[in-house]
Amino acid sequence: MDRKILTYDSVEISFGGKAVVHDVSFSLEHGEILGLVGESGSGKSTLIKAAMGLLGPDGLVTRGDIRYMNQNILDIPEKEKRKIRGAGIGMIFQDAGASLCPIRTIGEQIYESMRVHTKITRSEAKSRAMDLFDKLNFKDSQRVWDSYPFELSGGMNQRAGIAIAMLMNPPILFADEPTSALDVSVQRQVVREMLKLRELFGTAIVIVTHDIGVVRAMADTVLVLKNGKTVEYGTADRVLDHPRDPYTRKLLEAVPKLQRKVRV
Ligand SMILES: Nc1ncnc2c1ncn2[C@@H]1O[C@H](COP(=O)(O)OP(=O)(O)OP(=O)(O)O)[C@@H](O)[C@H]1O
């Protein structure tokens, strides 16, 4: 059986005809955590947006394939893509608070987002959410369900965002800088939470981050990008402890003083 659930094969991505990601290949197995690192503008977000069909009107995958469970994502109709977004691949962003609707409670938003994918009553949605909140050790699940985003801390909104992305139990989670807007103790909690998802559900995760400490704490494999090209791709131990490329060494040297290694 092919264990790969997501494969990028020689992918080139262009905006307005100009290529910004060149010939990038990687794959993801069930439960694998891939760290995507590289300086600002290297193409990390663009790579993950491509699989979600979120490149916008100017963006296009101009070469290569992206396969999700043996389906070429680039060839399927928009309706099928919508099913993959959310139910197949969940996504969390840097600032979940900003992507939540400010005038509706977390509970209402959960119910609405689940209804897009499945026939479900409000009370079924609530019971699924409460179950997941409990598994993720939320202290006050009922309060989170009833709250508006502004009533929760930034960290709690981010944790709620992770829970919302996981409600349909997608086999893959894309996390784009999920910890960078948070203070260090909340960062640790969010990292622990993502590891817990893998433990509980076998979720595979692609984490985009500038924080090598987060990569060390989480990733099995690491892909280093520079100017839209792959600089190194390998196991986390190999890339982080024995980097082959000077660019990777430079990225790693930029952080050890912070000693951000997250203990989980
Ligand atoms: N909508 C767009 N239109 C034109 N160019 C874009 C668009 N989105 C991204 N780009 C370009 O694509 C390249 C990669 O950007 P991307 O945001 O993927 O980098 P990144 O590595 O995620 O950066 P950061 O860490 O700052 O988020 C950059 O040169 C950027 O200017």
Task: Please provide a written account of the structure.
- The chain has one domain: P-loop containing nucleotide triphosphate hydrolases (Rossmann fold, 3-Layer(aba) Sandwich).
- The chain is 41% helix and 26% strand.
- It is built from 11 helices and 10 strands.
- It has helices at residues 44-52, 78-88, 96-99, 106-117, 122-135, 141-146, 154-166, 184-201, 212-218, 236-241, 246-253, and strands at residues 4-15, 18-29, 33-37, 59-68, 71-72, 89-92, 172-176, 204-208, 221-226, 229-235.
- A 6-stranded mixed sheet has the order 6-7-8-3-9-10, with helices on both faces. A 4-stranded antiparallel sheet has the order 2-1-4-5, covered by helices on one side.
- The model is unreliable at 256-264 (pLDDT under 50).
- The structure holds adenosine-5'-triphosphate.
- Adenosine-5'-triphosphate is lined by residues 15, 20, 38, 40-46, 56, 58-59.
